[in-house]
Structures are given as structure tokens and as C-alpha cells.
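Protocol step 4 of 6: structure prediction from sequence.
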Amino acid sequence: MTTDTDTDTTAFTPADIRPFTVTIDDAAVADLRDRLAHTRWPVEADGAGTDFGLPLEVARDWAARWSDVDFAALQARLNRFPQFITEVDSQRIHFWHVRSSQPDALPLLLLHGWPATVLEFEHVIALLTEPDDGRQAFDVVVPSILGTGFSGPTRQVGWDAARTAAALDTLMNRLGYANYGAAGNDLGALVARELGILAPPGLLGVHVLQFFAFPSGDEAESARLTPEDWASLQGGTTAQFQAKAGYQDMQIKRPATVGYALDDSPAGALTWNGDFWSGWGDGAASVDVEDFLRHLSVYWFTQTSGSAARLYRENALTGAGYRDLPISVPVAVAVPPEDYRSIRACVERSANLVRYTELPRGGHFAYLTDPDLVVGDLREFFGSL
């Protein structure tokens, strides 16, 4: 995947912000299709189901559908919003920047998760920038998390969520925003939490779909856990996540090793990302496969699957995104019922929690599946500050 502006990143100066356009090379598409056509599929054990990973039938079906993707349409979709590139701390940052027509619009930094991309927010940008109900409007900045997508692979060690947060604060300052809010999901929620810890001047508040904090064992804290909290920890969504998230173990411990397969084999990247995207295969029938393949294509053509895996080890080495350090800025947590459950009592251990909402529906990718609910909660939070 190339661009007509991405020619020499060494020519950047710290203040440079340049327009960016995505171009998907025909040669790269042909190579992807050739690799998919020559995939050596494994032999699946009878009765394996989803207990051992993404079922072979699902993988083969999704691979065939990936080969048939209209990549020209994907390119147009990626170029739908104004987008730019800049460089902070020797690392490129790509971002969509969509301004509202409203003069009092609040700048909002939207941070996507893994294995999603900037496309995670394509359905909420219009809702945020041009609300039709007279409510708070936002200027939206959507970066490709450093090490993913069009920000390109990270080329130094040390790019954990805390360093990423500092770089994105620099980006917001560079865009001329004296005040702004931040919101994130998954990996983006880790970065948003670190922004809250950093508490740079002008950060108004942080809204996340997950605040990863677990019971400390303190009796007073445990007494505040609800029956829903205990159910999630003892067999529900949180317990299932911990039991099945094998990708986390590998990406935390040996990301470079798995990165060879992810950046070389489209079938490997598809099944690695697709296992999580489909709820460990159990929700494969309800996945919007075309949508998943659009996100996957971004990782494939930018060759950032290995770099994205590396981010997990970076965070594990420093604790970034999980640290119980004080957050003084206001924090809001929205809890989708079909996702890891953020426990209010555990969030309050370190954060200035001012809003905790249990959404009536939604899973890990609620920005994609239930954008109205997430935007409504986000708007209520920032409108109250």
C-alpha cells in the first residue's frame, strides 16, 4: 500500500503535517490473491470445533471472500475523510482529521483497538461532527495507533501505550488544540488511560470501553463488587477472555516470532486476527466478514501485523495501560454486556470516575456494531464536563 505523498519520511521536520492519500497497488493485490490461492491448509481434527482455534471451514470461507474483495472500493473508503501524516519522536503518525462546521466543536481524539484500524470509527464521525439534534459537536482526530496501519511499523523498541499517549498529545498540540477529550477502545483504551495518567494541560477527560483493572484482594473493595462483576470474573465474559486469549500470551512473550507468519502469510494473519474478531470462533456466524476483511487488509498491505503484535510486549514490559497510577482528569467507562467487564470498584481504585454506564447491548467492537449507544454515552460525558 503506497501513497502519493509518502515518499521520504526522513524529510520530515517536527512541525510538518502533510496530506495523505491511500493507493493500493495492483501488484500488491495480485500478490495477496496469489498467496491466498496457494495456502497450505492444515488438517483439522474431527470434532475440534472452536476449542482449538478458528475452525478450518470458517478460515477457508473467509480467505475466499478476502480474495474477492473490491480493493478499489476499499481505497475509496479509506480516502473518504481528510487525512494527514506527521512525525513525532522519529515515528510517523497517520490520522484522519474531520472538523465540524460548528464553531464551538470540542476536539476529540479517537483511539482504535486491535485488530481494528481507523475504520473502527467511520460510522461515528458524522454523528460526532454534525449532530442533527443541536447537541455538542466535535472536531475529530483519528490516528492510526503507532505501529499499526498507515502510521507504519514502529522502528524502535519502547513504543508502549505511555509513549504513544505522549506522542498523540503532541499531535493535538501541533493541530492547535489547547483543550481536547480522548476516547478509546481496546488498545486505544490503554493509550487513553495513559493520557489520563499523563494528564497533559488541556486534556478535559477520558472515555473508554474498557478499563483493565482487576480485584486487588482488598476486602473493602471486594465487598463493593456486584453480582454481575463476580459472574463475569467466575465464568462470564471476563473469565472467557482470560481463558481463550492465547494471542495475548504470544504477543506479550514472543511477538517477533509470530510476526514472521503474520506479515508473510495472509492465511496466518486472517486466522490470527479473525479468532479474536469472531469471539474465539463462537460468534463467526454473526461477523460482518466484509468489514473484518477491510481492517485485515489495512494490516496486510501496510505490513504492520508484526509491529502491532510487538505493542503487547512493550506494554507488558512497563505495565503501560494497566498501571494503577492516579488519574485526576474525569474518566467515563461504558460497559458493553458482551465484552470484558470493567469493574467499577476496581476503576475507582486509581481513576477519577465520574460516569459508569452499562450499555444495553454491544460487544468488543461496539463502535462498529452499536455506534448510536457509544456516541450517546460519549456525548453525555463530555457535555457534562
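Step 5 (inspection) to follow. The mean pLDDT is 95.
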